[in-house]
Sequence to fold (866 residues):
Amino acid sequence: MDQVIGIGLAGFGTVGAGVYRHLLSNAEVLSRRAGVAMEVRKVAVKDTAKRRDPAPGPGLITGDWKDLLDDPRVSIVVELMGGIDEPMALVAGALERRKPVVTGNKALLAERGEEIFQLAARTGTPVYYEAAVAGGIPIIKAVKEAFVANRFVSIHGILNGTSNYILTRMGSAGLDYPEALQEARDLGYAEADPTLDVSGWDAAHKAIILASLAYGFWVPPGRVLVRGIDAITAGDVRFADELGYRIKLLATIKAAEDLRIEVRVCPTLVPKSHVLASVSGVYNAVAVRGDIVGETLFYGRGAGQDPTSSSVLADLVEAAQALGRPPASVGFTGHELYGDCLPQEDAVSKFYLRLHVEDKPGVLARIAGILGDAGIGILSVIQPPHEESAGPVPLILMIHDARTGAMEAAARAIAGLESVKAEPALLHVEDFR
Amino acid sequence: MDQVIGIGLAGFGTVGAGVYRHLLSNAEVLSRRAGVAMEVRKVAVKDTAKRRDPAPGPGLITGDWKDLLDDPRVSIVVELMGGIDEPMALVAGALERRKPVVTGNKALLAERGEEIFQLAARTGTPVYYEAAVAGGIPIIKAVKEAFVANRFVSIHGILNGTSNYILTRMGSAGLDYPEALQEARDLGYAEADPTLDVSGWDAAHKAIILASLAYGFWVPPGRVLVRGIDAITAGDVRFADELGYRIKLLATIKAAEDLRIEVRVCPTLVPKSHVLASVSGVYNAVAVRGDIVGETLFYGRGAGQDPTSSSVLADLVEAAQALGRPPASVGFTGHELYGDCLPQEDAVSKFYLRLHVEDKPGVLARIAGILGDAGIGILSVIQPPHEESAGPVPLILMIHDARTGAMEAAARAIAGLESVKAEPALLHVEDFR
Fold:
């Protein structure tokens, strides 16, 4: 511990403030364990006049992130700004100057990861991003280091706490989606504009990072199937429960044939017997299956000031320890053993199809006919109990393994039947084979 | 990938053979991801004549582990021999020669860890030991690196697959201990002499390593409370179930007052609502609570050729990448923020006390009197349903937080009552506060 390492912090929101606070509060344990002492020497924020708690020391605050780049007392740049264009310029500027970067910006990596790691490789300067995926859970370290000898069979993750909270409450309290969303807002688990969370895109950014790391090429966001949770009804949650499943916003990443991979993030029926079905509230979890290690699972808090700070601080220690020596890895290595995504229409899955139909003879026969003509097998049909009425009634079909493209076409054809009254809901069913 | 790193393998049992096999089978993914190529250049075994599958290449086998030390083509020594004295001599010899060591030997580290890491620090040569704790689960990396910024509140682990299989089957199939043990033997989950597993000592070795790493000093094995599962009856498993618990062989590691820690490994009642209660069969799991990261959990296969090989290979990659540069860490850093174990008699816990008593008035009053005199509170008393008979009947008491010393003395006094007929069973109850 000869030397104090200077940190430049870009962004002082929830996570930035947490990093600053814990760097002070746990300085002793950090420096004794890691043999490095670290000090924040510049903090870049948008509004320099804003009062903050904790308040960065006098003279630390700047309104211009570019000030971090050329300050010789800043050796490591921590990017916690949010957004894409400015963070990209900051990260590129830091790497050009051979300053290692720690970031928690999942959108930045998902959109511009390829470019960032080309630059990291060219300048021999590492980028650390444990905080970008699943908050305090060290899943990047697990996939990158602990399972380095494994070919990945599959990775399944619950990667968005807000969505998981909403779906959990729809199940445990029978709430409808708008009620559960409002509750999440009231508790501070959902932002005023929850679009990024409930649309599936926050989880998709994390899934893209995990898939890219596991399979050694940057997965284009356009090749990922992303569906949100806003169309899920309290009825779907209840019907799934009766069938032995819970609905989760699940990231599914799998090795497919011909060195291709499948990546999707969508509301998915998970068997209650699988441990991921028990991950409730704002918690995250990732199940990784490797060809050598077998089945593993990692669980913890996936967001929030403290868990995310814990990951940023771990990355900072690693960055500080590696300063001034050629890094073993810049944080991502393309390995060309896989190279493409399976087209979504070719991905094979079980499905849950929920319809609202007229309660009269012959309806099921017509639906079964459409599926049969498409070569799609039905596993089971349930007609949940309903009140006697002239209105449409729910009808649930569990569908055998089918090509997604064929299944979607069949669902559209079924939706066009006169006796089918509302838009069908088509959800993936994951059985973790 | 300019250079091939030479490996010396000491021990070619289950794990050694797995490392050899997967180093060949996954050579491409390993070398592309890690940028290092590795080759086994010597294999030390006891019986050089034995036929092996996979069979190490010609000329690799030696009957003397000392041959690994002075062979200049061996850069990293992998110790998978078992035992303590010979492995200790091998590890010391390798470190003296500045050859990094990868080991899966939990007994060696638990007994001689302090000495090994003093030597590692003196020679600046790292020792890697992910495979020593919880097989394929990267818990050493998590505690050492991912949570480096945290003060550890507690670590709870199910660390022995054999015991967990036996307890799981006692619960799911109502087997008695001897039947469940025989089943585990028949399936290859228990060895001919299962003492190390069922006595709690295998788990205790792992707990000692985790506790030492988390709290920065080598925990003396004599300061750990270790109890086996062989006195647990099918009745205890059933009574615990009725009370809302499962019995697990649980390692409990906690920060206590005055910079002291508690470490124990014993059959423990775990609330069914806690995720550790759901860890069944030969799986392992570790729940880590840090002051910043909060509650986390790691789950996977804790033993066996493949999962353990996965961890050895990850350590090998790290060792190979770090060759020839001063290591950031030699694998263990004492930090002097904690320094002692709480005496076991001072540890406070809830308890389960199972008695067999004469079924007549006044018995409970005398038992309650002894507990009351000792200042020990009773949470609940249950008398499980039993056949009408003149013989003794089970009586279960759930005990409020009590000092272990006081509780054990009270249990002895109760055992001395004339109406108490069999040896009482006293088990810890963990509520994860």
In short: The longest strand of chain A covers residues 260-271. The mean pLDDT of chain A is 95. Residues 4-128+306-322 of chain A form a domain with the Rossmann fold fold (CATH 3.40.50.720). The two ends of chain A are 49 Å apart (CA to CA).
